[in-house]
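Trying the structure run again after the queue cleared.
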Amino acid sequence: MMLTAGALPAASRADLLPDYCRPMSHKSLKQSSHDPTGGNSDRWPIAPGATQEIFNQRGPGAVTHIWFTIAATSPLHLKELVFRAWWDGAAKPSIETPIGDFFGLNLGDYVIYENDYLACSPGRSLNSYFVMPFQRSARMTVTNEGSQPVGSFYSNIDFMTASIPADALYFHAQYRQETPTQAMKYATPADARNPGGKENYVYVETRGRGHLMGVTLGWIQNSERWMGEGDDMIFVDDETKPLIIGTGSEDYFLGSWNFGGREGARPFAHHQYGAPLIQSPERVGGRYCCYRFHGDNPVTYTRYLKHTMEHGHANDRGDCYYSCCYWYAAAPAADFPPLPPVSARLPKIIAL
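Done. Tokens:
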């Protein structure tokens, strides 16, 4: 094919264009807490014990963005409010987590940060960019499990209606905690070995087919010194031994050297990893919020997945862990462990 100087074939010219320059067939929509009377009361109050439905859609589509902001009397509302979602009429939720943990605020404090999937902005606005496809229906709720009313819950959920590929996977988010983790005792330092992941902290354990997207984790230290010598261990399709083994907790979260140590640790937040909250590092009462996503290389499984991490070297520490795990699965719902009651979810130091 002969080309004049500076010319490109039509196909090449098209490939140079970003997607937003090309024709699109989906329909963009939003469900929000807007005032249906046309007034300015664009929010929902949520009484203690009440559940507010925030999204309900029939037909195929995908949630592309979630934005919440909350005015509540209780300073603990990020742990007291529970966010749930159901896909395609499933009896069990595919998202079930305190709202703060879903947005990476696992210790109930607002922290300004941004990554590829989650963000907390000035003004205490919470954002998610996880894409959540569904074939027939989607429903989301927020439940106030606290003892005080939420005066204003503002919500904007952006979604598209479009034909969804039959093999599209369903988004899941699950909360877990261990407060405290059970510290293993060893006769000598040489005995402190854990090659098989026994007694590790578990982020998620699930069956079927899908892939792991990542985790958020809140840590509270119950004793002095660095608590992050635990290795990440991920079991894939084989329940007897981990397929993936890392080199340390701060390494899994793509930091290094204790995130800077007792005197030098500084919060950080990047596209796929971060520790946006670091307070009183390596001290009793030290608080960390961390996240790690696997968007570059989601961890695939065909039968079984268990994502775990040691708590200290060979599980020798007893700290408090609060986590949310995110993954996609072929089935619209999975078995979740019971959600702990509010009184157990509130972050605290445990006397050991």
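The chain has two domains: 26-168, 174-188+196-336. Worth checking whether this holds up in the mutant runs.
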